[in-house]
Amino acid sequence: MSEECTHDCGSCSSNCEDRTQPQKDPNNYRGVKKVIAVMSGKGGVGKSMVTSLLAVNASKKGLKTAIIDADITGPSIPKSFGLTEKVTCNAEGTTMYPVETADGIKVISMNLLMDKETDPVIWRGPIIAGAVKQFWEDVSWGDVDCMFIDCPPGTGDVPLTVLQSLPIAGIVIVTSPQELVSMIVGKAVNMAKAMDIPVLGIVENMSYFECPDCGKRHAIFGESHIDEVAAEYGIKTVAKLPINPEAARMVDAGEADKLDTTGLDEIFKAITQEN
């Protein structure tokens, strides 16, 4: 057995004497009807907040909703919803049970498995990718109408694992209003095309700031080019979210369940219309 063994034989090709093949229970995820990946070409654009907003939007519309926090080394979904309860397992230790938010959104995240939320996850890429697969295969999800995957930024190991290993119905791309947006969005769109997965919409986060006194909109990070970019790549649905200090405060306070999600209604329509 290697010194770097993770004891996850299902994701290992070594033929060591300690190798065992745990049985995967397909009933764990058989009740999940639709899986949506939320991606970004780079970090710092508010992808995890958008994932939370989409999940809250779906839950408010009566759908049974779940989130896989696939950002293994930088998980933030539990903090957004104020989750402190730890993940539990069955007696055999082969199946995990997700933690639920106040409104019943099921969540699995590395931070729900760690003793302290500030403990770092110092793993190499293949091990991180294996953990994401386990979040799908080894968690008893029950009946879920819509599951959102909060992917880490970029097009590396974890997004690739998500798109290859999970039945992704579509992708929502999150970006910000900067000149680099076309190139960054293009990378995510081309990855989706390579995997033959539709891009359902683009969310431009921090698109503008609306003055609470006069109502005038200010382009803090530059003028938006997202409509042109969406047209360039044939993406029909675009949402523009403002800079909202109150929303940031609510997320920091673990009150994502209370967020106003109406800005993502068109994205949600695109998600529910996708077969």
Annotate the secondary structure layout.
Elements: E1 35-40, H1 47-60, E2 65-69, H2 77-81, E3 88-89, E4 96-97, E5 99-100, E6 106-108, H3 125-137, E7 146-150, H4 157-165, E8 168-175, H5 181-194, E9 199-204, E10 209-210, E11 217-218, H6 226-232, E12 238-240, H7 245-252, H8 265-273
Helix pairs in contact: 3-4
How would you describe this structure to a colleague?
The protein has 275 residues and is an alpha/beta fold. The chain has a single domain, classed as Rossmann fold (3-Layer(aba) Sandwich), CATH 3.40.50.300. It contains eight helices and twelve strands. An eight-stranded mixed β-sheet has the order 5-6-2-7-1-8-9-12, sandwiched between helices. Strands 3-4 form a two-stranded antiparallel sheet. Strands 10-11 form a two-stranded antiparallel ribbon. Helix 3 packs parallel to helix 4. The protein is globular.
Which fold name fills CATH's third level, the topology? Rossmann fold
Range of helix content: 25-40%
Q: What's the β-strand tally?
A: 12
Count of individual helical segments: 8
Strand order of the largest sheet: 5-6-2-7-1-8-9-12
- What is the H-and-E element order? EHEHEEEEHEHEHEEEHEHH
**Radius of gyration, CA atoms, in whole angstroms:** 19 Å
The CATH class is identified as Alpha Beta
Assign the structural class, choosing from mainly alpha, mainly beta, alpha/beta, alpha+beta, or little secondary structure: alpha/beta
Overall geometry comes to globular
Beta-strand proportion: 15-25%
Low-confidence stretches: none
Q: Give the termini separation.
A: 44 Å
Mean pLDDT: 89
Can you tell me the number of structural domains? Answer: 1
What is the CATH architecture term?
3-Layer(aba) Sandwich
